[in-house]
Design brief:
The structure is a homodimer. Chain A has about 200 residues and is mainly α. The first copy, chain A, has two domains: about 1-80, Tetracycline Repressor, domain 2 (Orthogonal Bundle); about 80-195, Tetracycline Repressor, domain 2 (Orthogonal Bundle). Chain A contains ten helices and no strands. In chain A, α2 packs across α3, α5 (about 85-95) runs antiparallel to α10 (about 175-190) and α9 packs antiparallel against α10 (about 175-190). The longest helix of chain A is centred in the middle third of the chain and has 25 residues, at about 55-75. The interface of A and B includes residues 28, 127, 166, 169 and 187 of A. Chains A, B: GO terms for molecular function: DNA-binding transcription factor activity; transcription cis-regulatory region binding.
Amino acid sequence: MAKRVDHDQRRRQIAEAVWRIAAARGLESVSMREVAAEAGVSLRLVQYYFETKHNLLVLALRYLHEQGESRAQARIAELPEQSPRGVLRSVLTELLPLDEERAQSLRVHIAYFSRTHSDPELAKVFLGEGTPIEDLVAGLLSAASLVPGADPWHEANLLVSGITGLGLDVLHDRYRPDEVVATLDYHLDRLFGTA
Amino acid sequence: MAKRVDHDQRRRQIAEAVWRIAAARGLESVSMREVAAEAGVSLRLVQYYFETKHNLLVLALRYLHEQGESRAQARIAELPEQSPRGVLRSVLTELLPLDEERAQSLRVHIAYFSRTHSDPELAKVFLGEGTPIEDLVAGLLSAASLVPGADPWHEANLLVSGITGLGLDVLHDRYRPDEVVATLDYHLDRLFGTA
């Protein structure tokens, strides 16, 4: 069992090196050799665990998703207020670069995103199946008591897309984090009729 | 005068070659030599007009903005219905890849966007000054008769960011164009109280 944990840790350590390079210099700077140097391991070890660069890119993205999801779930579980609105607000603020971890995650996603139009195989992994975040948000909205006429699906669609884009604007210093959070709270107020 | 027009046309012809390469293969594939080949002109001519690759990238982006703006203004002028809602809808659908021209423009923007986090000088040109589209949408909303409590600035912020993101989802085949237009119309209905 100890051996297995060790392998997982090594894989994660290498994946984290991919994230750092992608966030700072883009996906075109990710090579097996650069990643080995960044992770402080040998090139052979990177090749042993990941075989190809494509495999390394795909798995580094999967780890990033997994890590983001676990942390989001942990943060939601710790919420003092488990109301539909509180949970919804937490899910949506997970998309914003409100700390260094989420900022790095967003930067890595930008690096991958730019590759999606020239690498269909990577695009498939990046885009995933269906629209899980929109489904989650629409589900939370459906279960909540909203103002009359509010359509959970159309609302979820614009919220997820809009908050993601405003997160990129924060990275670019077009908006301050508190301005974007104020926009989110305004929209939740309007939906829940608490404006 | 004839000479001047000719120079402008040549510059535009070269800029359009930059767009095609950027849309298909990303900004990293743009070189003075590739652009000359794509435009069907000599390398010396590209160098004569643009001097450096950075200058070429900056000016190709400016031309794209100018062209997009002229076409948007022409489309808005031709609208049968010049109501605030009609104009607003037209401004926002300009952000969507509803024809090959807007799809290409969005692809070029993605290519530039991915470069903004590693090239601060290009980022400055790409991001521009202030938030002109948000200001335009907020201005149109302020002048319109909206449902009570609607805040033009918060609404403009989420609409511009959200519709831009949904346009990228259309490029990625996550949504059909008509689904995104339905989401936009739903939100305009809610704002104008016509739901």
